[in-house]
Specification:
The chain has 205 residues and is mainly α. It has helices at residues 17-37, 44-51, 55-61, 65-88, 96-113, 117-120, 134-151, 157-180, 186-204.
Length: 205
């Protein structure tokens, strides 16, 4: 079963398996409808109908559709962390370069395949383009905690700042790549990869 968001994003945290499964269906339906109709036309009633649950079940977890989109973003971050962690379990060499490729590749894969991701990714971007600093700080902190052990580095302020700069850079360039081409312009993505390698080499080598 897909991970559920942290309780802080919910009116009420699911305590039973059945409740967690219902929350998963609600968020899956929200993600699908975001792709199909966009945020403005999204409604809690439509989500309940798509999920096959009573409207009261939606309001048990969320006060409005904004909170639902925020929870979807948190679930995306949990899913992304799980994917990167799984990638880094594979034997191989390359140190931080291997880790960076895993992070970028998994982000691109979710950008291309995860329902609703283009609108919310790891932090609600609704209205479209309304991005604040919080999501990237959240991602950078998560990557610092995840990768510090892999890199045998102390997760100190310097490493957090390094990852924050890398995340902000990657975020901007990947969004540019997907504005240029629906599946992401490969040349822009490769330029982003090279820029990240050059920056991280100066700090991590």
């Amino acid at each position: 079963m897909k991970s559920v968001p942290q309780a802080t994003s919910l009116r009420r945290a699911p305590v039973q398996r059945r409740s967690a499964e219902r929350l998963t269906r609600i968020l899956d339906a929200c993600a699908e409808l975001l792709d199909e109709v966009g945020y403005d036309a999204l409604s809690t009633r439509a989500v309940a109908l798509r999920a096959g649950v009573p409207i009261g079940s939606v309001y048990r977890f969320f006060g409005n559709k904004r909170q639902m989109a925020d929870a979807l973003a948190q679930r995306n971050l949990e899913h992304f962390t799980e994917r990167v962690t799984e990638r880094l379990k594979e034997p191989g060499e390359g140190g931080w370069r291997t880790a960076m490729d895993a992070v970028l590749d998994e982000y691109l894969a979710m950008k291309r395949t995860a329902p609703g991701f283009s609108l919310v990714d790891f932090g609600n971007q609704i209205p479209v383009g309304a991005r604040d600093a919080e999501p990237n700080h959240r991602v950078a902190d998560r990557l610092t905690d995840l990768l510090s052990g892999y890199l045998a580095r102390e997760p100190d302020d310097d490493l957090r700042r390094t990852f924050l700069i890398a995340v902000e850079t990657a975020d901007t360039l990947v969004h540019l790549a997907f504005r240029v081409a629906p599946e992401g312009d490969e040349k822009i993505i490769e330029e982003a990869r090279e820029m990240l390698r050059a920056y991280l080499a100066r700090v991590l080598d």
